[in-house]
Amino acid sequence: MKPVAPALQSLPPGVTRPADYEARARAILGDDAWAYFSAHAGDGQTVRANRAAWAALALQPRVLRGLRSIDTTTVLLGSSLPSPLLVAPMALQRLAHPDGEVAMAAAAAALGAGFILSSQASQPMESIAAAFLPDRHRGPLWFQLYLLPQRAATLELVRRAEAAGCEALVLTVDAAVRAARPLRLPPDVLPVNLPPTSAPGGTLQDLLALAPAWEDVAWLRSVTRLPVLLKGVLHPADAAEAVRQGVAGVIVSNHGGRVLDGAVATATALPAVVAAVERRIPVLVDGGVQGGTDVLKALALGAGGVLVGRPLLWGLAAAGAAGAAHVLRLLRDELELAMAQCGAGAIAQLDGSLLASGA
Protein backbone atom coordinates (compact mmCIF):
# COMPACT_ATOMS: atom_id res chain seq x y z
CA MET A 1 0.00 0.00 0.00
CA LYS A 2 1.40 3.39 -0.98
CA PRO A 3 2.03 5.77 1.96
CA VAL A 4 -0.36 8.70 2.13
CA ALA A 5 1.42 12.07 1.99
CA PRO A 6 0.10 14.68 4.43
CA ALA A 7 -0.89 17.36 1.87
CA LEU A 8 -1.44 20.55 3.83
CA GLN A 9 -3.63 22.10 1.14
CA SER A 10 -6.41 19.67 2.10
CA LEU A 11 -6.75 21.06 5.63
CA PRO A 12 -10.11 22.47 6.70
CA PRO A 13 -10.10 26.24 7.18
CA GLY A 14 -10.23 27.96 10.55
CA VAL A 15 -8.37 25.33 12.57
CA THR A 16 -5.82 26.95 14.88
CA ARG A 17 -5.72 24.56 17.86
CA PRO A 18 -5.74 20.75 18.14
CA ALA A 19 -9.08 20.86 19.96
CA ASP A 20 -10.69 22.56 16.95
CA TYR A 21 -10.77 19.24 15.13
CA GLU A 22 -13.09 17.51 17.60
CA ALA A 23 -16.29 19.20 16.43
CA ARG A 24 -15.35 18.60 12.79
CA ALA A 25 -14.73 14.94 13.50
CA ARG A 26 -18.10 14.62 15.25
CA ALA A 27 -19.84 16.04 12.19
CA ILE A 28 -18.09 13.56 9.89
CA LEU A 29 -18.02 10.32 11.85
CA GLY A 30 -20.98 7.98 12.00
CA ASP A 31 -22.63 7.38 15.34
CA ASP A 32 -20.97 3.99 15.89
CA ALA A 33 -17.47 5.26 15.13
CA TRP A 34 -17.93 8.34 17.29
CA ALA A 35 -19.28 6.24 20.16
CA TYR A 36 -16.29 3.90 19.93
CA PHE A 37 -13.57 6.55 19.82
CA SER A 38 -15.15 8.79 22.47
CA ALA A 39 -16.18 5.97 24.80
CA HIS A 40 -15.33 6.03 28.49
CA ALA A 41 -15.89 3.78 31.46
CA GLY A 42 -18.70 4.52 33.86
CA ASP A 43 -19.70 8.17 34.16
CA GLY A 44 -16.50 9.48 32.59
CA GLN A 45 -14.90 10.62 35.85
CA THR A 46 -11.41 9.60 34.73
CA VAL A 47 -11.70 11.31 31.36
CA ARG A 48 -12.63 14.57 33.08
CA ALA A 49 -9.98 14.08 35.76
CA ASN A 50 -7.26 13.68 33.13
CA ARG A 51 -8.06 17.05 31.61
CA ALA A 52 -8.58 18.76 34.96
CA ALA A 53 -5.23 17.54 36.31
CA TRP A 54 -3.24 19.04 33.43
CA ALA A 55 -5.21 22.28 33.67
CA ALA A 56 -4.57 22.50 37.42
CA LEU A 57 -0.80 22.57 36.97
CA ALA A 58 0.31 26.20 36.85
CA LEU A 59 3.46 27.25 35.03
CA GLN A 60 6.02 29.49 36.70
CA PRO A 61 8.17 30.77 33.82
CA ARG A 62 11.71 32.08 33.93
CA VAL A 63 12.58 35.34 32.12
CA LEU A 64 15.62 37.11 30.69
CA ARG A 65 17.25 33.84 29.74
CA GLY A 66 18.85 35.02 26.50
CA LEU A 67 17.43 32.21 24.36
CA ARG A 68 18.48 32.04 20.71
CA SER A 69 16.78 28.81 19.66
CA ILE A 70 14.42 26.08 20.84
CA ASP A 71 15.46 22.44 20.57
CA THR A 72 12.88 19.68 21.09
CA THR A 73 15.38 16.84 20.58
CA THR A 74 14.73 14.05 23.07
CA VAL A 75 16.74 11.01 24.13
CA LEU A 76 14.63 7.90 24.62
CA LEU A 77 15.86 4.31 25.01
CA GLY A 78 19.33 5.47 24.09
CA SER A 79 18.33 7.14 20.82
CA SER A 80 18.15 10.82 19.95
CA LEU A 81 14.70 11.71 18.64
CA PRO A 82 13.44 14.91 17.02
CA SER A 83 10.45 15.27 19.32
CA PRO A 84 9.09 14.02 22.67
CA LEU A 85 5.71 13.38 20.98
CA LEU A 86 4.46 9.90 20.16
CA VAL A 87 1.22 8.72 18.60
CA ALA A 88 -0.57 6.59 21.19
CA PRO A 89 -1.69 3.10 20.14
CA MET A 90 -5.26 3.40 18.88
CA ALA A 91 -7.33 0.60 17.42
CA LEU A 92 -9.32 0.42 14.20
CA GLN A 93 -8.32 3.78 12.75
CA ARG A 94 -10.08 3.02 9.46
CA LEU A 95 -13.26 3.76 11.41
CA ALA A 96 -12.02 7.35 11.43
CA HIS A 97 -10.74 7.57 7.84
CA PRO A 98 -10.35 5.10 4.95
CA ASP A 99 -6.56 5.56 4.99
CA GLY A 100 -6.47 4.60 8.67
CA GLU A 101 -3.19 3.75 10.35
CA VAL A 102 -1.18 4.15 7.14
CA ALA A 103 -2.19 7.81 7.04
CA MET A 104 -1.48 8.26 10.75
CA ALA A 105 1.96 6.67 10.36
CA ALA A 106 2.81 8.91 7.40
CA ALA A 107 1.76 11.97 9.41
CA ALA A 108 3.84 10.93 12.41
CA ALA A 109 6.92 10.26 10.29
CA ALA A 110 6.64 13.60 8.53
CA LEU A 111 6.50 15.47 11.84
CA GLY A 112 9.27 13.54 13.59
CA ALA A 113 6.90 11.95 16.10
CA GLY A 114 7.10 8.39 17.34
CA PHE A 115 4.41 5.92 16.34
CA ILE A 116 3.03 3.11 18.51
CA LEU A 117 1.29 0.61 16.27
CA SER A 118 -1.77 -0.96 17.88
CA SER A 119 -2.13 -4.73 17.76
CA GLN A 120 -5.78 -3.98 16.95
CA ALA A 121 -4.89 -1.95 13.87
CA SER A 122 -7.26 -2.16 10.92
CA GLN A 123 -4.45 -2.46 8.37
CA PRO A 124 -1.54 -4.93 8.13
CA MET A 125 1.35 -3.95 10.35
CA GLU A 126 3.75 -4.36 7.43
CA SER A 127 1.90 -1.70 5.39
CA ILE A 128 1.84 0.66 8.35
CA ALA A 129 5.56 0.18 9.01
CA ALA A 130 6.30 0.80 5.32
CA ALA A 131 4.56 4.17 5.57
CA PHE A 132 6.67 5.17 8.56
CA LEU A 133 10.15 3.67 8.48
CA PRO A 134 11.61 5.24 5.28
CA ASP A 135 11.42 8.80 6.63
CA ARG A 136 14.87 9.67 7.99
CA HIS A 137 13.39 12.35 10.30
CA ARG A 138 11.01 9.94 12.00
CA GLY A 139 10.76 9.02 15.65
CA PRO A 140 10.65 5.43 16.96
CA LEU A 141 8.29 2.71 15.73
CA TRP A 142 6.95 0.59 18.61
CA PHE A 143 4.39 -2.21 18.62
CA GLN A 144 1.64 -2.30 21.23
CA LEU A 145 0.75 -5.79 22.40
CA TYR A 146 -1.98 -7.52 24.35
CA LEU A 147 -1.27 -11.04 25.56
CA LEU A 148 -3.36 -13.43 23.48
CA PRO A 149 -5.00 -16.56 24.94
CA GLN A 150 -2.25 -18.75 23.49
CA ARG A 151 1.42 -17.82 23.91
CA ALA A 152 2.15 -19.24 20.45
CA ALA A 153 -0.21 -16.67 18.92
CA THR A 154 1.39 -13.89 20.95
CA LEU A 155 4.84 -15.02 19.84
CA GLU A 156 3.78 -15.08 16.18
CA LEU A 157 2.60 -11.47 16.53
CA VAL A 158 5.91 -10.50 18.16
CA ARG A 159 7.88 -12.11 15.33
CA ARG A 160 5.85 -10.21 12.74
CA ALA A 161 6.47 -6.95 14.59
CA GLU A 162 10.20 -7.66 14.70
CA ALA A 163 10.29 -8.50 11.00
CA ALA A 164 8.30 -5.37 10.12
CA GLY A 165 10.95 -3.18 11.76
CA CYS A 166 9.36 -2.33 15.10
CA GLU A 167 11.94 -1.15 17.60
CA ALA A 168 10.23 -1.91 20.94
CA LEU A 169 7.21 -3.73 22.33
CA VAL A 170 4.63 -1.93 24.46
CA LEU A 171 2.71 -4.44 26.59
CA THR A 172 -0.63 -3.05 27.76
CA VAL A 173 -1.19 -4.28 31.30
CA ASP A 174 -4.25 -2.35 32.50
CA ALA A 175 -7.04 -3.41 30.15
CA ALA A 176 -7.46 -7.19 30.41
CA VAL A 177 -10.30 -6.88 32.93
CA ARG A 178 -12.91 -4.44 31.73
CA ALA A 179 -16.58 -4.23 30.86
CA ALA A 180 -17.50 -5.23 27.33
CA ARG A 181 -18.59 -2.50 24.93
CA PRO A 182 -20.75 -3.58 22.00
CA LEU A 183 -19.26 -2.41 18.70
CA ARG A 184 -20.79 -2.78 15.27
CA LEU A 185 -17.95 -2.87 12.77
CA PRO A 186 -18.30 -2.41 9.04
CA PRO A 187 -17.37 -5.62 7.23
CA ASP A 188 -14.20 -4.03 5.84
CA VAL A 189 -12.87 -2.72 9.19
CA LEU A 190 -11.39 -5.45 11.35
CA PRO A 191 -8.34 -5.98 13.60
CA VAL A 192 -6.60 -7.68 10.70
CA ASN A 193 -3.36 -8.54 12.53
CA LEU A 194 -5.06 -10.66 15.18
CA PRO A 195 -6.21 -14.27 14.82
CA PRO A 196 -10.02 -14.63 14.70
CA THR A 197 -10.06 -16.50 18.02
CA SER A 198 -8.17 -13.85 19.99
CA ALA A 199 -11.21 -12.19 21.57
CA PRO A 200 -11.39 -13.00 25.32
CA GLY A 201 -14.38 -14.66 26.92
CA GLY A 202 -17.09 -12.56 28.50
CA THR A 203 -17.13 -13.68 32.15
CA LEU A 204 -14.97 -12.15 34.84
CA GLN A 205 -13.28 -15.51 35.36
CA ASP A 206 -12.43 -15.69 31.65
CA LEU A 207 -10.91 -12.22 31.75
CA LEU A 208 -8.93 -12.91 34.91
CA ALA A 209 -7.48 -16.03 33.33
CA LEU A 210 -6.02 -13.91 30.52
CA ALA A 211 -4.84 -10.97 32.62
CA PRO A 212 -1.05 -10.54 32.42
CA ALA A 213 1.16 -11.21 35.45
CA TRP A 214 4.82 -10.54 36.12
CA GLU A 215 5.76 -14.02 34.91
CA ASP A 216 4.23 -13.12 31.54
CA VAL A 217 6.41 -10.03 31.38
CA ALA A 218 9.46 -12.20 32.08
CA TRP A 219 8.39 -14.65 29.36
CA LEU A 220 7.91 -11.86 26.82
CA ARG A 221 11.35 -10.43 27.58
CA SER A 222 12.85 -13.89 27.14
CA VAL A 223 11.47 -14.43 23.63
CA THR A 224 12.32 -11.11 21.98
CA ARG A 225 15.40 -9.06 21.27
CA LEU A 226 13.30 -5.87 21.50
CA PRO A 227 13.03 -3.72 24.63
CA VAL A 228 9.72 -4.14 26.45
CA LEU A 229 7.77 -1.24 27.96
CA LEU A 230 4.68 -1.56 30.17
CA LYS A 231 1.69 0.65 29.40
CA GLY A 232 -0.93 1.22 32.08
CA VAL A 233 1.24 1.76 35.18
CA LEU A 234 -0.26 4.15 37.76
CA HIS A 235 1.10 2.89 41.09
CA PRO A 236 4.70 3.67 42.11
CA ALA A 237 5.13 0.18 43.57
CA ASP A 238 4.40 -1.33 40.16
CA ALA A 239 6.88 1.06 38.56
CA ALA A 240 9.57 0.00 41.02
CA GLU A 241 8.82 -3.66 40.31
CA ALA A 242 9.10 -2.98 36.58
CA VAL A 243 12.64 -1.76 37.17
CA ARG A 244 13.48 -4.90 39.16
CA GLN A 245 12.05 -7.04 36.37
CA GLY A 246 14.33 -5.43 33.79
CA VAL A 247 11.60 -3.64 31.86
CA ALA A 248 12.90 -0.94 29.49
CA GLY A 249 10.32 1.71 30.37
CA VAL A 250 6.83 2.39 31.71
CA ILE A 251 3.95 4.43 30.39
CA VAL A 252 1.74 6.13 32.96
CA SER A 253 -1.71 5.59 31.49
CA ASN A 254 -5.30 4.97 32.57
CA HIS A 255 -6.31 3.91 29.04
CA GLY A 256 -7.85 7.29 28.37
CA GLY A 257 -10.53 6.66 30.98
CA ARG A 258 -11.88 3.70 29.00
CA VAL A 259 -11.27 0.96 31.61
CA LEU A 260 -11.61 1.97 35.30
CA ASP A 261 -13.78 4.95 36.12
CA GLY A 262 -12.39 6.84 39.08
CA ALA A 263 -8.78 5.89 38.35
CA VAL A 264 -6.21 8.51 39.26
CA ALA A 265 -5.46 11.11 36.59
CA THR A 266 -2.19 10.48 34.80
CA ALA A 267 -0.79 13.92 35.60
CA THR A 268 -1.45 13.19 39.27
CA ALA A 269 0.16 9.74 39.16
CA LEU A 270 3.19 10.76 37.09
CA PRO A 271 5.45 12.36 39.77
CA ALA A 272 5.31 9.37 42.12
CA VAL A 273 6.06 6.94 39.29
CA VAL A 274 9.01 9.07 38.16
CA ALA A 275 10.34 9.09 41.73
CA ALA A 276 9.89 5.31 42.07
CA VAL A 277 12.02 4.45 39.03
CA GLU A 278 14.86 6.74 40.20
CA ARG A 279 15.87 7.65 36.63
CA ARG A 280 16.81 4.02 35.88
CA ILE A 281 14.24 3.68 33.07
CA PRO A 282 12.23 6.24 31.09
CA VAL A 283 8.70 7.13 32.12
CA LEU A 284 6.22 8.23 29.47
CA VAL A 285 2.65 9.43 29.93
CA ASP A 286 -0.66 9.78 28.11
CA GLY A 287 -4.24 10.70 28.98
CA GLY A 288 -5.97 14.01 28.34
CA VAL A 289 -3.07 15.71 26.55
CA GLN A 290 -4.58 18.28 24.21
CA GLY A 291 -2.09 21.12 23.85
CA GLY A 292 1.57 22.04 23.86
CA THR A 293 1.47 23.36 27.42
CA ASP A 294 0.17 19.94 28.55
CA VAL A 295 3.22 18.39 26.88
CA LEU A 296 5.54 20.88 28.59
CA LYS A 297 3.96 20.16 31.99
CA ALA A 298 4.38 16.41 31.48
CA LEU A 299 8.05 16.83 30.61
CA ALA A 300 8.56 19.17 33.57
CA LEU A 301 7.10 16.47 35.84
CA GLY A 302 9.75 14.05 34.59
CA ALA A 303 8.17 12.32 31.60
CA GLY A 304 10.60 11.27 28.89
CA GLY A 305 7.93 11.29 26.21
CA VAL A 306 4.26 12.14 25.77
CA LEU A 307 1.68 10.03 23.95
CA VAL A 308 -1.22 11.75 22.19
CA GLY A 309 -4.42 9.93 21.27
CA ARG A 310 -7.87 11.30 20.58
CA PRO A 311 -6.80 14.74 19.21
CA LEU A 312 -4.96 12.90 16.44
CA LEU A 313 -7.97 10.73 15.69
CA TRP A 314 -10.11 13.86 15.30
CA GLY A 315 -7.53 15.29 12.90
CA LEU A 316 -7.45 12.04 10.94
CA ALA A 317 -11.23 11.89 10.72
CA ALA A 318 -11.50 15.50 9.54
CA ALA A 319 -8.68 15.59 6.99
CA GLY A 320 -6.85 12.27 6.77
CA ALA A 321 -3.08 12.29 6.97
CA ALA A 322 -3.01 16.07 6.58
CA GLY A 323 -5.27 16.53 9.57
CA ALA A 324 -3.24 14.22 11.79
CA ALA A 325 -0.01 15.90 10.67
CA HIS A 326 -1.53 19.30 11.36
CA VAL A 327 -2.44 18.31 14.93
CA LEU A 328 1.13 17.12 15.51
CA ARG A 329 2.50 20.32 14.00
CA LEU A 330 0.24 22.45 16.20
CA LEU A 331 1.33 20.49 19.29
CA ARG A 332 5.00 20.88 18.43
CA ASP A 333 4.60 24.59 17.65
CA GLU A 334 2.72 25.15 20.90
CA LEU A 335 5.39 23.23 22.82
CA GLU A 336 8.18 25.30 21.27
CA LEU A 337 6.33 28.54 22.02
CA ALA A 338 5.63 27.50 25.61
CA MET A 339 9.29 26.52 26.08
CA ALA A 340 10.37 29.94 24.82
CA GLN A 341 7.88 31.68 27.10
CA CYS A 342 9.12 29.63 30.07
CA GLY A 343 12.77 30.39 29.33
CA ALA A 344 13.74 26.83 28.37
CA GLY A 345 15.74 26.31 25.20
CA ALA A 346 15.96 22.51 25.38
CA ILE A 347 13.92 19.59 26.70
CA ALA A 348 16.55 18.90 29.38
CA GLN A 349 15.81 22.33 30.90
CA LEU A 350 12.18 21.41 31.62
CA ASP A 351 11.85 20.45 35.26
CA GLY A 352 9.74 20.98 38.34
CA SER A 353 11.11 24.49 38.89
CA LEU A 354 8.83 25.64 36.06
CA LEU A 355 5.72 24.49 37.93
CA ALA A 356 4.21 26.65 40.66
CA SER A 357 4.69 25.49 44.23
CA GLY A 358 2.34 22.66 45.08
CA ALA A 359 2.10 21.36 41.51
Verbal overview:
It holds the Pfam family FMN_dh. It comes from Ramlibacter pallidus. Belongs to the FMN-dependent alpha-hydroxy acid dehydrogenase family. Its cofactor is FMN. Keywords: Flavoprotein, FMN, Oxidoreductase. There is one protein chain. The protein is an alpha/beta fold. It has a single domain (15-354), classed as Aldolase class I (TIM Barrel). It is built from 12 helices and 10 strands. The chain has helices at 20-28, 31-37, 45-56, 100-110, 125-132, 151-164, 204-210, 214-222, 236-244, 266-277, 292-300, 310-341, and strands at 74-76, 79-81, 85-87, 114-117, 141-145, 168-172, 228-233, 249-252, 283-285, 305-308. The strands form 2 sheets. An 8-stranded parallel beta barrel has the order 3-4-5-6-7-8-9-10, surrounded by 8 helices. A two-stranded antiparallel ribbon has the order 1-2. Strand 7 (228-233), helix 9 (236-244) and strand 8 form a beta-alpha-beta unit. The radius of gyration is 19 Å and the shape is globular.
What would the keywords be for this entry?
8-stranded parallel barrel; alpha/beta; 359 residues; disordered N terminus; TIM Barrel; two-stranded antiparallel sheet; globular
